[in-house]
Batch of 2 targets.
Target 1
Amino acid sequence: MRILVSMFCGWMVWASFVTWRLTHPEVAVLAGIVSVFVCEATIHRAERKGLQRERMQLRQQLNLSAHNINQLQESLSNVQAELHRRDIIGTPAARELLKRQEEAMNAQSSALEDRTSRQDRMFVAMERLLALQTEQTASIQQNLAELLTQLASEPRQHVTMTDSVLVQNREEERMRRQYRRMSDEFIAELFD
């Protein structure tokens, strides 16, 4: 496009020289060729100045981008240094905290296991005590039934409570002692 504009400019110069008959046709052709070069140089200079302006703008943008990149790199190195410093300071404290938490969890689990084992022992002892008490109650009821049967079969006119207490006294005393001894053992097991 630019060459066409330059050629049109040279043709116009040649046509004006030929039309007005200012010089010989050879000079008119030479003037047309010179005008083509002059027009081309002018257009070229204008384009060159436009490219130089664009280059300056791009250089300014590049300098601004380089400045921004340098600031970002500086900020990044500051952040990395701060993180490294915090890591150096915080790591022992964090490890100590984790160690204490682990110790606390171990203590809690052992206390829970101990409590569970004590409760299990207490339940077993209570079951034994309940079984013994059930057994003693059944024995006492059987002895009372036998006593009533014996008293009913003996010919007496007057039955007193002292007779039944005297008859039952030795057996009942033995049962009480056995019950007391088992109760004491159970209580001792609970508080051990």
Note: The chain has three helices and no strands.
Target 2
Amino acid sequence: MEETPQLLRRQRWPWAVAILLVIAVDAFLIGSRTGECLDYTAESGAVSTCTSGPVLGAACTWLLAAVSVLVISHFARRLVRAARHR
């Protein structure tokens, strides 16, 4: 008697790894900061100042967050579908 072929199992781990990868990239890009300082001598009378901000800028940070939410929700949906079909 021949064995019936099993249905292909949908793997869950690629979707979980993809979600973690997106989170890691976001944490790196959003967590990284850049800045500059202007130092003046006391004799010049000017005040030394420092500024800092995200590497990507405010607009790109919001765009990255919005795209990441969409991508993670897609990956999560695929992960749930793969878990149901086991």
Note: Residues 59 and 65 are 10 Å apart (CA to CA).
